[in-house]
Design goal:
- Helix 11 runs antiparallel to helix 14.
- 76% of the residues lie in helices and 0% in strands.
- The radius of gyration is 24 Å and the shape is globular.
- The chain has two domains: 1-57; 65-276, Orthogonal Bundle (MetI-like fold), CATH 1.10.3720.
- It has 277 residues and is mainly alpha-helical.
- It has 14 helices and no strands.
Length: 277
């Protein structure tokens, strides 16, 4: 029986390894293409290791060419970090309120908030555009930050974790004279840290990869994020695949760094959610 179980595990491991390699192949090809001269990019069979290394010239062209990638990076980092911090903070406060504060109409209000998640964001673009033009937030990074700072998904996700905190802990702190803000910052927040880290990483990735909102709500090239910059770079160098792959690799490096740093917290958050479920 034991030998049979081990054999099945070996087969499953091999199958999962094959699927993992297949999923990684486009990413590996992108990196490989960014290191080659243009003539070797589309050769068949694929040359994973370039015969002629051209990495310095490709990446130099990307970073010192017509599109200022250093400025694009700064814009994206500023917008993404501010959006992530604001969204996490607002979602944590809202989730705690819906989970641990009893007030009249709380459940009905939460259902209404949750129902807004079913509204496609595209249906609100015209209204948001007119409103932003009216209040002066159009073509600003502040407006871009506000667009993603209020998340129904983040509120719902974190509320589920707050519900797992024992009410006795909250009541004990309240009997000792602690108010809601002190309970929130000193007790509730540390207990859901893995969930907060998970949502923060997801929000960072979503905001960094966002193309729709910057395309509509930014007009000045000096305010462009990395996604708009890559698109503009593609319009200029779309037929040069080696340069396009170098630009794409440059655009995803921060995401890889964030995920590598935060993957432990993501796994803890998933495990914690699985236990609670």
């Amino acid at each position: 029986m034991t030998a049979g179980i081990d054999f099945r595990k070996i087969i499953m491991t091999v199958v999962m390894a094959i699927f993992g390699i297949l999923f990684l192949m486009p990413f590996i090809w992108m990196i490989s293409a960014s290191l080659k001269i243009e003539e070797e990019v589309l050769t068949f069979p694929i040359q994973w290791i370039p015969d002629t290394w051209n990495a310095v010239a490709n990446y130099k062209e990307v970073w010192t060419g017509s599109m200022p990638f250093s400025l694009l990076y700064w814009n994206s980092i500023k917008v993404t970090v501010l959006t992530t911090f604001t969204s996490v903070f607002v979602s944590c406060l809202a989730a705690y309120g819906f989970a641990k504060i009893n007030f009249k109409g709380r459940d009905v209000l939460f259902i209404i908030v949750l129902a807004t998640y079913m509204i496609p964001p595209q249906t609100l673009l015209v209204t948001q555009f007119l409103l932003y033009r009216w209040v002066g937030l159009y073509d600003t990074h502040a407006g871009l930050v506000l667009l993603n700072s209020f998340s129904v998904f983040g509120t719902f996700m974190l509320r589920q974790f707050y519900l797992g905190i024992s009410n006795e802990i909250i009541e004990s702190a309240r009997m000792d004279g602690a108010g809601h803000f002190r309970i929130f910052f000193n007790i509730a927040l540390p207990l859901v840290r893995p969930a907060i880290a998970t949502y923060a990483i997801l929000r960072f990735i979503w905001t960094w990869n966002d193309f729709q909102y910057p395309l509509i709500f930014l007009r000045s090239e000096a305010l462009y994020t990395i996604q708009l910059g890559v698109q503009s770079f593609a319009d200029e160098h779309g037929s040069v695949y080696s340069l396009m792959m170098a630009a794409s690799v440059s655009a995803i490096v921060p995401l890889l760094i964030i995920f590598i740093i935060g993957q432990k917290h993501v796994i803890e958050g998933i495990q914690l959610g699985g236990v609670k479920g």
